[in-house]
User: Fold RAP domain-containing protein from Monodon monoceros.
Amino acid sequence: MLRLRAICPFSWRVFQFRPFSFEPLLIRMNKCTDEEQIFDLIEKNKAILSEKQVACALSMLWQFQKQKISLLKNVECIRDHPQFLTLHNLATTKMEFMNDNTLVNVLYIIQQFDINMLSKFSSCLADQHLCFSPLMGKIADIVNRNLETIQDLRCLSVLMVSISSLISQRFQEQLVNKAEQLFDTIDSSQVNTARRIVQFLRNIKYSYYPLLERCNKVFLSNVNHLDLDSISKILSLYHSLQFHSFEFILMTKKRLTEMIPLFDHPASFVKLFVTLGPVAGPEEEKQLKSTILLMSEELTGQQALAVMGAMEEMESRNSRLIKKIASILYKHLDNYKPVELLRITQALIFLHFQSKELLVKLRELLLSYLKVSVIPSEISLLVCALSMLPSPRLDEAKISQIEAVLPQCDLNDLNSFATSVLRCIQYDPMYRNNTPGKQLKLLQKLDHYGRQRLQKCSSLNLLWEEVKSLKGDWFADSLLEETVVTLQRLMDEINYINVAGIASFISRTNYLSTSLLDRIASVVLQQNEKIHPFAILAIILPFSALNYDPPQRDEFFGTCLQHLNSYLSILDPLKLVFLGYSLATREYFSEDLLKAIFNIRFLAKLDSQLELLCSSLNMKVQFRLMELNRAVCLECPEYQIPWFHDRFCQQQYKKDFGSMNGAQQQIYKMLAEVLGGINFVKASVLTPYYYTIDFECILDKRKKPIPYGSHNTTLGKLPKIHSELNTQIAGSRLPPGAEKIALEFLDSRAFCRNIPHLKGKSAMKKRHLEILGYHVIQIPHFEWNSMALSTKNDRMDYLRERIFGEGKSSS
Assistant:
């Protein structure tokens, strides 16, 4: 009842002191003997009916129905009666005056007649911010008990969104399954129904690909009718669910571009800027920026914030626009919430914007919020924002405030605090020479609470919610091992729903846990029919990146590929490229997959998608395609796929050519001594197919070094690359019995984080160099920097043993 008083106090007062003139009508309703008498009273008194009379009328109608032999037939007759619609509308308008018990009874009766009305009730509660109220819980219970009988997906989708905050995981899955069953019953034009289903999936944080894919088809078939607001909402939902539809983005980009000249109002144009900007081409981006600059004086604080966020995503370097938007942010700075101040700080730092006045005021506001804040997540984001500003510092008061909330923090908050503390230590000039004891003690407490939280965790799903987005040095150094131990303890809970997420976590952390990877492979083999093909790339990735084969290697990769075959034509191009590369790393080449990638139509489609990507991701995709092309040419020449990356590689080699690091310079000098002079070794050698190797030397058949003489390539000069494969073999131009040796210094990036196990990319490079005719010697950093090689003589002996010793290429 309190919630109703808060919502509408005036109406409540009216209700409390209403005279008892309605009592005779209630008596007359209770004396009615059939539905028609009730409907007659409604028709004659609809203008004056109170909430109690509406509830009484509904109750009487339901009592009559329960007495009938053919309940279903009579319910349909009642539902179709014109006065029932009147009663329906009255119940909706009188809802806020009903007490909780009356409302529950009304909701129960209404759903017996019309699920549509129940969905409208749920929307009314949601509009009044009552998503967590007991009443919404009652609606959820009604839906749960009647789920099998609901056949209207439009109404069900409304209810799903309304009750999504209250329901269990089991009920969530039941609703997802029901929506999937009913999807074929809706018309392909029902965009709003599809959007609500995606919204429900976003609310429950479940990227259920079968439903997302079907909803996406609805959006694609109606893309020419979607307005800016619909496109913006759909793309925002997709972003939250990490669901990527290249086709939808490409089509909506065209539609949004056509809208650029149509909007001259700031609110609409800001939404267009935010939606189109991150995927716009150079010409569209120029139009967007010039127009937003012209209307910048009219922007509100929230609109300026949205524009700044979009510019960060666009990696914009338009200093004039950045300065203008920053001035608007400064004007409205006092009105922003803490989380918005964090977003502003992050954007300003990313865009390299410097304004002492703005940063000083930003710091003052963050500090003022921090003084009064008691919520752990809010304190963590405020401290995070402060640590990003110039000369960050944590005084005793702030440290005490952080320590006070640590017992209430989840892993995300703890990670945020630790990252902020480390940032302060790194960038505050006071801390450069020594770290104050209080900061160190705080880090120790963060470690303690983090480990404690992991050790107490008893649910994989709860653990996953906290660790899925964790990153940074503190987590990797302090909690990663304990996190993996916890995952191993709970790994029986890995299933088709969470398997892709757990696999992604392992890939991201570079932590090789064979028991976890074996469990992932087992789940794929046992539950592959329930795993959507879109999840296969994430599942394969840790096996590829960490250079690990599960016990049933061929069956595992074969099952993954078989599951994907029917989707090869509809997977996003970049995902297909990453998938092909990941499999090639593990020496697994699918002819069907390679044919799907290496054809003119696919490559043209990929070029179109590259235009939509940020520069860093664009370049990553191009490199992966080149590396896949190289792997296929070297390992599967029978497929006759041509090498077409000469120009790309030459451009990158010229751009990325760099100097040797300290360890490489040491090795270079010692190699010259071991081999007999500088003319016996080449540094930074470019091989056929554009691998760069640290050092190269040639030994004759008696293991004697052969000098390069006048043919020694100048450092940085590109050797000629031949098109014929037989000319790619390094030994084809050597004296009989001679061999080329490639020496590679491997730093920590070449190995798994927890053990000295070579990662997939480095293992593939070794394999390819051997195909090219090299004898490969890999020098791990942990050997070169070990106590066993602490002197120059030790290292010289090590190099002699590796180069002149008997045996095959060692790793």
Q: What stands out?
A: Residues 615-635 form the longest helix (21 residues). The CA atoms of residues 261 and 749 lie 49 Å apart. Residues 1-22, 710-731, 807-811 have pLDDT under 50 and may be disordered. Strands lie at 682-686, 692-699, 739-746, 774-780.
